[in-house]
Amino acid sequence: MQIINEVLSFERNSYDRFIDFLKGGGIFFVVLGHSMPVYLQEITLFPIWGGLAVPIFLIIQVFHAEKRGKLNLPSFSKIWKRIIKPFVITQALIMISLLAMCLIKGDIGIVDWETVFKSGGYGPGAYYPFIYLQFIPIIFLYNLSLGKLSNRRLLIVSILISQLLEVCCIYAGIPEWLYRLLFIRYFFLIYIGYTIAKRDIQLSNWCIYISMISIAATLVMFFVKESLAPSIIYPTGWKTCHWFCYLYIPLFLIVCKMFYSSKYLLKIRSYVEMLGKSSYEIFMVQMFYFAIVHGAIKHLLGIVFPVLISDLVGIVIALTFSIIPTVYIMKKQDSKNV
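Predicted structure:
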């Protein structure tokens, strides 16, 4: 498979089904990552491929804002309907379920409400809407202040800002729960999304070398238990969420585009695109599942099966619960709107 000189490009003036493909793969990896125990993530090198789900969603957000040649940020009504309202409804359903569980068990202490607050909500991924909302003004400021720089200078400045933000967090003593809710660890992704929106990216030998270094750094950050990071890298549990761990994303996207273009994967591609069109709805359903349902299912599976089989069956159940009903309902809803 020839990869040198491959070009990464998105449709800037029309609908791009490749973006649906990326979103579909991304949401699949989100559910997979939330259901996969650490030892399986280590065996499969999950951070290298599955750990890019949220970064890719944010890159797509930047691309949509910049792709027309001028900044095009979503309206508040669209943000409310598409992002905030589903999140509020999901959190309300989770809280009602948790309160019912507390009343049934007669112990309100089964829920750590302080942790819920510090996490931005209950359930895995509850931080994401907060990052999405922060990205909107940050994209505007990025465009306004840095948009006229050459690509090389923009890269250098973006790295410097990303690193400076980490250093500021260290010396300001920002707690990790707040760091988790802030855009800081994802700032460099704006550069990637902005670059893809402005021009096609051709893969060169230089890009390959940088990508290999980035992948190696990501693996070191993930596998080394004791942090080897110097004092200029914020010591977070999100060890692979630093700017130098994102440098191989263009290579990853090019590989995805090559698979997407393969005539042998047309059927799989159509299914993945289907997931992409319902990605945020799937995200909300998986948040509810892992907050309310997953613990009980994992406990039951642990009684019946050995650890490995229990974990694998748990992954299948999580994917099935989160994806299949959601896609079915969304397809039914779309057919009614036609």
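Summary: The beta strands are 7-8, 201-202.
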